[in-house]
Amino acid sequence: MTLFDNPSTALRAGMRRLAASVCVITAVDSSGQRQAMTATAVTSVSDDPASLLVCVNRQAGLYDTLSQGHRFAVNVLSAQHAELSQLCAGSATGEGRFALGSWGDSSGLPYLRDAQAVFFCQTARQLTHGTHLVVIGDVDKVLVADGAVDPLLYADGRYRSLNPED
Amino acid sequence: MTLFDNPSTALRAGMRRLAASVCVITAVDSSGQRQAMTATAVTSVSDDPASLLVCVNRQAGLYDTLSQGHRFAVNVLSAQHAELSQLCAGSATGEGRFALGSWGDSSGLPYLRDAQAVFFCQTARQLTHGTHLVVIGDVDKVLVADGAVDPLLYADGRYRSLNPED
């Protein structure tokens, strides 16, 4: 193994080996504008209350909306959504991030109709650490795909998928 | 898609489709006993300070040690570590969790020599939400494997790996 001493370089090098599912966080800002942002820092927190967390850079367009406590949805992308992920990761802005994919509306929140799963959340707690905001959301509704379990993954700086032979 | 209304059932059903890398968290308790616990709720938080977070059930053996602020290591498992993961997920207890794998010691913390990466952390912040403790750790040292990027994944209730054809 190689030892990295500079913490930031080290974190990035090590995290290339932690594969993560790719999600798109959606919300609606105070002016009614839909927002979407790709995120891989998403995990479940607790069964009771049913909750998950997302980490959002304080420079992100979605930061203001989430820090103000607006509701949000976590859309777990499917393996075919790599191009949509790129759009929501920064190659488009504002409403342009909804140019690909089939987006629906549920209780006023945009969601991706062919996502692996969609978690609808109410902000429960927030914590700022360094460059990022950690938002814990209580989950009040979930849509789950009926087809194969085939999420889009990100590892080693590129998009991946599950090995179908496992 | 199927709509789930019971939040806990819904969260579990949706999370089966969010593939995650499998990690083993290690620490040493106040009496000097080594501890290990399998966890998939691990994400990076911030580049500056370099930090990550782990979510730990308050019923877990590791809970007391982490809540007391002891240092910990996050070992990102490799695809061949499924059996070791099972051991550290509850099929063994205490020192028995170190019965498989090649464990080293770095500054007093156990680490897995053939992990994909090992992050050594000092607890920075903690937050309790429902059944779980969220621990944010500042990363001061990282070991990164030199070989192929091939983490052990967990999705749909079983162990998986990355598709080598991507």
What features would you describe in this structure?
The structure is a homodimer of 166-residue chains. Chain A has helices spanning 7-15, 63-67, 82-91; strands at residues 2-4, 20-21, 23-28, 34-39, 42-47, 50-57, 72-76, 103-106, 109-112, 117-129, 132-144, 153-155, 158-160. Chain A has a single domain (22-146), classed as Roll (Pnp Oxidase, Chain A), CATH 2.30.110.10. Chain A has a seven-stranded antiparallel sheet with strand order 4-3-7-10-11-6-5. Chain A has a three-stranded antiparallel sheet with strand order 2-12-13, with no helix packed on it. Chain A starts with a strand and ends in a 6-residue tail after the last strand. With 166 residues, chain A is mostly beta strands. The longest helix of chain A is centred in the middle third of the chain and has 10 residues, at 82-91. The model of chain A has no long low-confidence stretch (mean pLDDT 96). In chain A, a hairpin with a 2-residue loop joins strand 12 and strand 13 (158-160). At the A-B interface, strand 1, helix 1, strand 2, strand 5 and strand 6 of A face strand 1, helix 1, strand 2, strand 5 and strand 6 of B.
Structural class of chain A: mainly beta
The protein's oligomeric status is homodimer
* CATH classification, class level of chain A: Mainly Beta
What's the total count of β strands of chain A? 13
Would you list the SSEs of chain A in sequence order as H and E? EHEEEEEHEHEEEEEE
Radius of gyration of chain A: 16 Å
Count of individual domains of chain A:
1
Largest sheet of chain A: 7 strands, antiparallel
| Residues in helices of chain A, as a percent range | 10-25%
Number of helices of chain A: 3
Distance between the termini of chain A: 27 Å
Strand content of chain A: over 45%
Mean pLDDT score of chain A: 96
Which runs of chain A of at least 5 residues are low in confidence (pLDDT < 50)?
A: none
Shape of chain A: globular
CATH superfamily of chain A: Electron Transport, Fmn-binding Protein, Chain A
CATH architecture of chain A: Roll
Order of neighbouring strands in the sheet with most strands of chain A: 4-3-7-10-11-6-5
**Of all protein chain pairs, which has the greatest interface, and how many residues does each chain bring to it?**
A-B, 73 and 73 residues
The CATH topology of chain A is Pnp Oxidase, Chain A
